[in-house]
Structures are given as structure tokens and as C-alpha cells.
Amino acid sequence: MMTSVDTDLIRVLADPLRLRIVTLLAEETLCTTHLVEETGARQTNLSNHLKVLREAGVVETEPCGRYTYYKLRPDVIAALAGQFADLAESARAAAENKRTCP
After folding, report:
1. Cα–Cα distance, 53 to 11 (Å, whole number)
2. Rounded alpha-carbon distances, angstroms, from residue 22 to 28, 41, 72, 76, 95
3. Can you tell me the distance from the alpha carbon of 77 to that of 87, in angstroms, rounded to the nearest whole number?
4. Residue 79 contacts by C-beta under 8 Å, 6 or more apart in sequence?
């Protein structure tokens, strides 16, 4: 039973703006212009966060003319959710385990 969680991915998603981007992309594929409108972030700041999400494998790009669209990779989110589910199951199984103090 797996009890570890991808801490690098958690760090990536821990940033409030990146989590907001992921939440928006869970609803639809958006370009940078849409994301700027939805988040109120500056384009350069948003681009930096999108780069982090791309490098972590959370989002992928889709060129469309002069725009770049971003879409969420649900398999990555599902894998992280599975890691948390495994961790919760391990905690349930270990609920009665108690190490004695010396």
C-alpha cells in the first residue's frame, strides 16, 4: 500500500494562483487571455505560473493560431488523488497501531 504523496506536485499546486488556474482549467480549455481575465493576474505573472504547471506536467498546451490554449491533464490530478486515497486507507488501517514510549 502506497503511503507517500508526490511532494513536488503538492508544492506546485500549493500556490493560490496556480490552484486557481488548475480549477479554471478543470472546467474548460482556456488561452492566456482568458486566464488573465478570470484571475486578474498580470500576463507575465500568469505566464510564469503556467510554465511551472507545464514543467510539472499538470497542464499541456495546444497552439491555435497566434494563441496558446492550456488544458488540464486529468491523469496527473487523478494520480495525486489516488496517492491521497492510499494515504487515507493506510491511516484507517493503522488507527489502532500505537508505538509504546520507552
Report:
1. 11
2. 10, 14, 7, 11, 33
3. 15
4. 6
Residues composing the chain: 102
Angle CA 84–85–90, to nearest 5: 95
**Angle at CA 6, nearest 5°, toward 25 and 30?**
10
The reported pTM is 0.85
- Reported as a single tens digit per residue, the pLDDT across 59-72 is 999 999 999 999 99
Listed residue (71, 39, 44) closest to 58, CA to CA = 71
The one-letter amino acid code at 23 reads T
